[in-house]
Amino acid sequence: MKQPLIRLLCGSACVALVAAGCGSDVTNKPAATPAAVAGKNVDATTAGTITGQVRFEGVVPPADIIRMTADKKCDPGAPNPKSDALLVAGDKGVANAFVYVKDGLDPGYTFDVPTEPAVLNQKGCIYTPRVLGVRVGQAIGIVNSDPTFHNVHAMPMNNREFNHGQPKQFTTVSEVFTTPEVMVPFKCNAHTWMAAWVGVLPHPYFAVTDKAGVFSIAKLPPGTYTIEAWHEKLGRQTAKITIAPGQTQPAPITFTAPAK
What we know:
This protein is mainly beta.
């Protein structure tokens, strides 16, 4: 009788140990990683707008003359046009200033990357537009509309540098920037006067001023923001702006002298 009792006790102990071991496995198993929380979308019913004009105070320096005579295929009808690096309207509005939300945007918001590529054209041996804004991850199509050789050379600090020869007219090369950067300079190694600037941002809150220096940044959630205006000749200016729900808030910005 003792032997069956011993076997029973041993069997019970083994079952208990196995159960304890199984319980230990369950207890020590790492918790499942929670699913990533989707980012917030901007509420269109409460979003506001920043509008303004970038202006210049002082004597406007004369524009440089571009010497295109080295390449007769560039623009035979206008061999020596003026540079568009600094364009100031009659009321002192500054064109081609890049205005964007620099700080204050809740990082919890997410924004779809545009599927349509931004376009940077080379026409008449001039980059058009001279200043362009794109999103991180958005394609840039760089077009050669001229019957001459161009060499597209982007020189970023934070993104990957690229340098493409475009010998044929009506051809396009495509590139993508993966890191925010304000601004990325472009040049053409074949035509030294050619220049363009690209602002790369992770959100859609940016604009380039028009010929009158006017800009508008729409669909911003209510909040307080730092906006910055960048210009290749005039430098940078910032302003602090607070937008209430549904409000259109003016943000005038003034440059007083060229950057040294």
